[in-house]
């Protein structure tokens, strides 16, 4: 209702409004993501802004930001000197991290596909090529020296 004054919320009501558990709110307090309110009438009450802050943190997590990064975004939002370019840089950095993780997952997938392809798919475990591959010592990655200049044999 417009014009209705929002009142402070108990931890249970704040959790419900934010779509999280009570323990999440307590965890965020311990991590310094939200302030621990003073006790009033024997229990803590949270201003409506805390619910909005928790929702912001959860949304940041949903799109891949860590809690630390969400805290950095909140600090940027509170900084009157900050610029949209600062937030954009944070998001671009996160994209680069995601791309790196995707590359690693593709390498893992290729390795799994290779061991699965070598498996006959039947027979005793003593001849299981997947288990044998897992028993092998890891190989050192080959070092490509493609970018190094060639040494010329000159007399």
TrEMBL record:
Record-given protein name: Mercuric resistance operon regulatory protein
Keyword Hydrolase belongs to the record: no
Gene3D superfamilies (alphabetical): 1.10.1660.10
Pfam family, one: MerR-DNA-bind
Keywords in alphabetical order: Coiled coil, DNA-binding, Mercuric resistance, Mercury, Transcription, Transcription regulation
PROSITE patterns, sorted: HTH_MERR_2
GO biological process, one term: response to mercury ion
Gene Ontology MF terms in the entry: DNA binding; DNA-binding transcription factor activity; mercury ion binding
Keyword DNA-binding listed: yes
Coiled-coil portions: 88-115
Role, per record: Mediates the mercuric-dependent induction of mercury resistance operon. In the absence of mercury MerR represses transcription by binding tightly to the mer operator region; when mercury is present the dimeric complex binds a single ion and becomes a potent transcriptional activator, while remaining bound to the mer site.
Superkingdom of the organism of origin: Bacteria
Domain HTH merR-type: 8-76
